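Researcher: We plan to redesign the surface later, but first we want a full-length starting point. Tokens attached.
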């Protein structure tokens, strides 16, 4: 079986999960589910990044140990799996022994290959970003130096181990040239290239002034820089370093990350892997950032979208749909409840919901709930079948490129074609005079519904399953879509039920 490995970043459990964390995870999940339905063996990893000064300070603020703090907070991220209906096959915590071992093994390998040396670090560090910055990357406000993220930086002077990032400049430039799809979308690759072309300096990869992290092997006074530790998680979960790679492993992975952490994944990580003689990731997909009701999500604006609350209010499928339909992956997006409500009513309740409901109710009432037989196919019928076939191909191509909104556009073209077919053929007008013709049209529609049910399932797992149930389809693999028509004539279907209720749109105040 062909293998796929897709990862979310591991989240800092320094606060409750918000829409941003849910977004990356949902995108990876749709990709994972789609590929599974398409016959791949998919490994899907998510988890929490639990070391570093930021988390140590958070724990201190609450008067508990860092371990107690991350144990508590990590569970909130684990709960996202249930809340967002994620199908991850592993959840990694960097405080687990398996990870401790992998991070130390990778360090030793880099050291053995001559890419780690000891010296002294002097420079600026932003704790919220857990990142080092050069003087020329900083801005100043009222005498306070700020990182590009707007967070305050601190001056650090300490003995430190360094990673010879400078040794990889040419190799990286070569990589971006020979594999221009390594970073997607293209404009993000250009950012990375321009960063690398300015010249790479060696990076500090250990700290001595706090201790919440993985010790440097052979020198316990130092703990690993949290990003070196964190990036290794993608290997840990695949079984590194024990007898790895092996026929069970899934590496190389496709990493899905927010634009803010692209540099770590597209510059540092491939260098570390090259330095350790490990195969490079397949691809890095960078997505944009969400604001909420037009503003940066922040407690002070009271506009932080809580995944559990919003899913409880509108339904998990509906939120998943909105997140992937509202903006092209890669672009920034704004979360607005008004737009969410109108998409639910127009695209889910009206467009697709009604198409299923109307067709299945007529089958239930006019055909004794049995799948009708087809008569000879007209051009109109054939066109709908052709479009169904084309839609599967289009969706496949879009998903391969992480163009989720495009995949949904294609699927909705078939939804519209189904609705047009219904309007043109008006099966309800034929029930007395031409009952066989009526049944034929309903059956043609059912074939389009079959394709739709299977294609929406990766996006909206519950709705997809419910649609399938109503059509009497047990399996969700795409292989069955290669044959149209493909439903068993005279099979008895369960009574239909609504899948997408309308939401009440609140009056604008
Ligand atoms: N722990 C590191 C990642 C290590 S991966 C080896 C980290 N964690 S994070 O919790 O700060 O961010 C995790 C992801 O959430 C990032 O990809 C980031 O881009 C994403 N988002 C955080 N806020 C977001 C929005 N408002 N919108 C979209 N994604 C956002 O960085």
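Model: Full-length starting sequence:
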């Amino acid at each position: 079986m062909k293998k796929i490995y897709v990862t979310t970043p591991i989240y800092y459990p320094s606060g409750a999960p918000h829409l941003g964390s849910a977004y990356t995870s949902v995108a990876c999940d749709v990709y994972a589910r789609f590929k599974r339905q398409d016959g791949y063996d998919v490994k899907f990893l998510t988890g929490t990044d639990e070391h570093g000064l930021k988390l140590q300070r958070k724990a201190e603020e609450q008067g508990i140990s860092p371990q107690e703090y991350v144990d508590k907070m990590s569970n909130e991220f684990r709960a996202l799996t249930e809340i967002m209906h994620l199908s991850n096959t592993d959840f990694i915590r960097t405080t687990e022994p398996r990870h401790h071992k992998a991070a130390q093994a990778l360090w030793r390998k880099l050291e053995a290959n001559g890419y780690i040396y000891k010296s002294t670090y002097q420079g600026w560090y932003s704790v919220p970003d857990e990142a080092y910055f050069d003087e020329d990357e900083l801005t100043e406000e009222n005498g306070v130096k700020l990182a590009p993220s707007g967070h305050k930086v601190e001056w650090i002077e300490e003995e430190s181990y360094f990673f010879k990032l400078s040794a990889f400049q040419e190799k990286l430039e070569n990589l971006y040239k020979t594999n221009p799809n390594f970073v997607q979308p293209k404009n993000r690759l250009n950012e990375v290239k321009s960063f690398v072309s300015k010249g790479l300096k060696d990076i500090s990869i250990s700290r001595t002034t706090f201790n919440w992290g993985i010790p440097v092997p052979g020198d316990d006074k130092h703990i690993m820089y949290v990003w070196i530790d964190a990036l290794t998680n993608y290997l840990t979960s695949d079984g590194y370093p024990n007898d790895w790679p092996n026929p069970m492993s899934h590496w190389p992975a496709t990493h899905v990350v927010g634009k803010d952490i692209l540099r770590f994944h597209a510059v540092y990580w491939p260098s570390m892997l090259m330095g350790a003689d490990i195969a490079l990731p397949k691809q890095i997909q960078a997505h944009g950032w969400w604001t909420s009701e037009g503003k940066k999500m922040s407690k002070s604006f009271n506009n932080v979208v809580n995944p559990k609350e919003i899913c409880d209010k509108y339904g998990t499928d509906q939120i998943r749909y909105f997140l992937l339909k509202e903006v092209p992956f890669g672009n920034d997006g704004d979360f607005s409840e008004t737009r969410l409500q109108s998409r639910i009513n127009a695209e889910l309740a009206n467009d697709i919901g009604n198409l299923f409901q109307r067709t299945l109710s007529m089958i239930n009432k006019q055909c004794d709930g049995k799948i009708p037989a087809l008569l000879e196919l007209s051009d109109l019928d054939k066109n709908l079948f052709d479009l169904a076939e084309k839609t599967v191909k289009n969706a496949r191509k879009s998903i391969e490129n992480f163009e989720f909104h495009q995949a949904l556009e294609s699927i909705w073209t078939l939804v519209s074609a189904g609705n047009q077919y219904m309007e043109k053929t008006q099966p309800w007008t034929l029930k007395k005079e031409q009952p066989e013709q009526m049944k034929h049209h309903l059956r043609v529609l059912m074939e389009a519904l079959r394709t739709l049910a299977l294609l929406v399932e990766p996006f909206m797992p519950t709705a997809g399953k419910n649609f399938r149930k109503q059509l009497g389809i047990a399996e969700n693999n795409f292989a069955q879509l290669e044959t149209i028509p493909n439903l068993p004539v005279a099979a008895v279907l369960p009574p239909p039920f609504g899948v997408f209720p309308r939401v009440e749109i609140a009056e604008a105040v």
